[in-house]
Specification:
Structural class: alpha/beta
Strand content: 15-25%
Radius of gyration: 25 Å
Number of strands: 23
Bound molecules: nicotinamide-adenine-dinucleotide
Distance between the termini: 82 Å
Helix content: 25-40%
Length: 502
């Protein structure tokens, strides 16, 4: 058994200063592989959130007036620092989240991609101009920042998901307050430090830690113009409704049940490799994890056999060991909830082909480990199919045809990601066109769009109109002003009719 780590205190970062030493409440940050507390994190109350909004509001006028090229320079410098500290970020994320360090490095790479795109702000923020819409009259549009924007993020990507938001928000000239997950809050503080080193003025980026109290204070604060949220569907719905009622612009991304359809003509070895990786990577705690496979016709038996074989080869252990494939889940509550779902699946009569309960990781007996679990013959009425389990539990539903598979997905309330494995271009093309899901993979199990496209689901996976990052990100964090101007040397005279441009 390894010795317990020393408990640190994690504080807020407001205008570059550590705050919250005297907080009334602190949360516990676990080391999930050891099952023990490794740090405590200050929880912000409404006055602390007000201080953060004050710092961000004070920084906004100068930052929004900073020339585009200078803003881009700061982001380019931040990009270089992020790259330089990629391993440090991955180690921080792995220590608090539990995912394997190499998996966390992948997360940092995807964050970098969004920062790359944010660096193109000089191009993205161009307006439009129409010359001579009427005699001597020109019309043009300006894209202006919103003011103070806030981001509220989940535990499962503590580096990447915040970057989806703050990189674009800051590029647009906004100031930003990040409220990261209280379960793995440390990566956000390294972000704050590197942004400062990159030359971002104090107060443009701030971090407040906490729970519902901090979130509610952000949602209610009149100084906050926009809220970006990523997390579970019930909270996403609450954030959307509350922020919108308070007159804020809001995008709230929710949970998921992502289906992978496997057609009988698919390369079944490739499909099984992809399915095991997408279902159990990061212990199933990815919003784009495949949590339901839908096998069509003969594909079912052959695929399940291959998946079971591969499950036997998954190495499970602490994320700090790069030789492992899968780490623990985030905390004891998550572990217990997942174990309860496995029991529900058994009781409902699904066939348990692999059971991850009772897994022991030598030297980490108190860690929150659950092994890869696989259910076959699952039906849409079962809770293990209906609910987002967010753990290493894959359910397989049998379908007779592609029509049948599409109907199953259509009836599911979520619409984040989906994929199809097939050798038929016609089947793939029909699937991409008819499936009612925001992100689609064709022989690709986790179709997270690259940084210059946008990320977002449909149905209960997104509340709001615009997706995150990519061009939608620039749209979300700016508002358009349209100017109609006349510069001529003669007076057009008085006319009380409604102005037309003829
Ligand atoms: P969560 O909804 O519990 O928490 C997300 C954030 O909301 C955290 O910062 C948390 O402090 C805050 N929060 C929690 N309860 C709150 C409440 N009652 N009122 C106000 N704020 C509250 O989510 P999580 O467990 O951290 O993350 C996992 C979830 O996030 C999964 O459902 C997953 O699918 C989803 N997710 C979605 C995407 C996506 O892009 N759609 C991406 C990553 C994660």
């Amino acid at each position: 058994m390894e010795a317990p780590a020393k408990v640190r205190t994690i504080l807020h970062s407001i205008a570059g200063k550590a705050e919250g030493q005297q907080a009334a409440r602190f949360g516990e940050v676990y080391n999930p592989a050891r099952g023990e507390v490794q740090a405590r994190v200050a929880f912000a109350d409404a006055p602390m959130v007000d201080r953060a909004v004050g710092a961000a509001s004070a920084a906004f006028p100068a930052w929004s007036a900073t020339p585009l090229g200078k803003r881009a320079e700061v982001l380019f410098a931040f990009r270089a620092l992020l790259k330089e500290h990629a391993v440090q970020f991955a180690e921080i994320v792995s220590r608090e989240h539990g995912k394997i360090v190499s998996d966390a490095e992948g997360e940092v790479t995807r964050a970098l991609e969004v920062v790359d795109f944010a660096c193109s702000l000089t191009h993205q923020l161009k307006g439009e101009l129409s010359e001579n819409v009427s005699t001597s009259v020109d019309t043009y549009s300006l894209r202006q920042p919103l003011g103070v924007c806030a981001g509220i993020t989940p535990f499962n990507f503590p580096m990447m998901v915040p970057a989806w938001m703050f990189a674009i928000a800051i590029a647009c000239g906004n100031s930003f307050i990040l409220k990261p997950s209280e379960r793995d809050p440390s990566a956000s503080l390294l972000v704050a430090e590197l942004l400062e080193r990159a030359g971002l003025p104090a107060g443009v980026f701030n971090v407040v830690h906490g729970d519902k109290v901090a979130v509610d204070a952000l949602l209610a604060h009149p100084g906050v113009a926009a809220i970006s949220f990523v997390g579970s569907t019930p909270i996403a719905r609450y954030i959307y409704e509350t922020a919108a009622a308070n007159g804020k612009r809001v995008q709230a991304l929710g949970g998921a049940k992502n289906h992978m359809v496997v057609m009988p003509d698919a390369d079944l070895d490739a499909a099984a490799d992809a399915l095991v990786s997408a279902a159990y990577g990061s212990a199933g705690q990815r919003c784009m994890a495949i949590s339901a496979s839908v096998t069509v016709g003969d594909a079912g038996d052959a695929l399940m056999k291959r998946v079971v074989e591969r499950i036997g080869k998954v190495n499970i252990g602490p994320g700090s060991d790069r030789g492992n494939d899968m780490g623990p889940v985030i905390n004891a509550a998550a572990r217990d909830r997942i174990l309860d779902y496995i029991a529900q699946g058994e009781r409902a009569g699904a066939t348990l082909l692999a059971d991850g309960r009772d897994l022991q990781v030598p030297g980490h007996e108190r860690g929150f480990f659950i092994g890869p679990t696989l259910f076959d013959n699952v039906t849409p009425g079962m809770s293990i199919y209906r609910d987002e389990i967010f753990g290493p539990v894959l359910v397989n539903v049998r379908a007779k045809s592609l029509d049948d598979a599409l109907a199953i997905i259509r009836a599911n309330p979520y619409g984040n990601g989906t994929s199809i494995f097939t050798r038929s271009g016609a089947a793939a093309r029909r699937f991409q066109s008819e499936v009612d899901v925001g992100m689609v993979g064709i022989n690709v199990p986790i179709p997270v769009p690259v940084g210059y496209y946008s990320f977002g689901g449909w149905k209960a996976s997104l509340f709001g109109d615009l997706h995150v990052y990519g061009e939608d990100g620039f749209r979300f964090y700016t508002r358009t002003k349209v100017v109609t101007s006349r510069w001529n040397e003669s007076n057009a005279g008085m006319n009380l009719g409604f102005p037309t441009h003829k």
